[in-house]
């Protein structure tokens, strides 16, 4: 179900977010027209921090926040700005992809886990490492969503969602396209 996070009183125990991070390199690659800004509207750290995430978060909740390796510091800062303390991470290795990057070819993305209030550790006997084929630009593996669902925490919302998923509320400008 699509939810307007600016006009809801609902509180979520799980928030799953893949922000449209703003990189400083708008014109890169052989075409000089690549990167996330060429595919969708991006947001600065300051713009992301202004979203009403603290208002929709339950007092005892978890945040799963995707951050690329070059913007890992910004990811931890945003996690804190939204009122969460960093606990651990999930790592996704994209196979069959050369990756992009200035320093190294990035084949890994990080999903930061933050906690707000009192949430018991999951004590899952599952790895924090997912390895799948690279997907469409910015699309995340279903295996991570399945790990989140296995926590048993509800209600759940996905921010910057691309589509509706059963059992989740969603918010994003690509939903329904």
Based on helices, strands and strand pairing, what is the structural class?
alpha/beta
What are the low-pLDDT stretches, counting only 5+ consecutive residues below 50? 28-34
Number of domains as seen in the coordinates: 1
Give, in spatial order, the strands making up the sheet with the most strands.
Answer: 5-3-4-2-1-6-7
Strand content: 25-35%
Descriptive overview:
This protein is α/β, with parallel strands linked by helices and about 180 residues long. It has one domain (about 10-170): 3-Layer(aba) Sandwich (Rossmann fold), CATH 3.40.50. Helix content is about 15%, strand content about 30%. The protein has 4 helices and 7 strands; from the N terminus they run βααβαβββαββ. It has a 7-stranded mixed beta sheet. The radius of gyration is 16 Å and the shape is globular.
What's the layout of helices and strands?
Elements lengths: L11 E6 L27 H5 L3 H4 E12 L3 H10 L3 E11 L12 E9 L12 E5 L8 H8 L6 E4 L9 E3 L6
Features:
single chain, 177 residues, alpha/beta, Rossmann fold, 7-stranded mixed sheet, 4 helices, 15% helix
Short description:
The protein has 177 residues and is an alpha/beta fold. 15% of the residues lie in helices and 28% in strands.
């Amino acid at each position: 179900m699509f939810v307007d996070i600016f006009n809801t009183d609902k509180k979520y125990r799980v928030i799953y977010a893949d922000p449209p991070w703003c990189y400083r390199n708008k014109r890169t690659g052989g075409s000089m027209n690549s990167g996330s800004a060429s595919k969708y509207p991006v947001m600065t750290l300051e713009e992301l921090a202004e979203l009403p995430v603290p208002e929709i978060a339950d007092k005892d909740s978890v945040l799963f926040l995707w951050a690329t390796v070059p913007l890992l510091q910004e990811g931890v800062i945003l996690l804190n700005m939204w009122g969460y303390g960093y606990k651990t991470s999930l790592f996704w290795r994209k196979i069959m992809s050369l990756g992009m990057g200035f320093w190294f070819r990035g084949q890994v993305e990080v999903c930061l886990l933050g906690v707000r209030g009192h949430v018991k550790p999951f004590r899952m006997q599952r790895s924090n490492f997912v390895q799948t084929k690279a997907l469409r630009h910015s699309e995340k593996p279903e295996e991570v969503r399945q790990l989140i669902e296995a926590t048993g925490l509800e209600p759940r919302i996905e921010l910057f969602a691309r589509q509706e998923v059963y059992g989740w509320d969603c918010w994003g400008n690509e939903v329904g396209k």
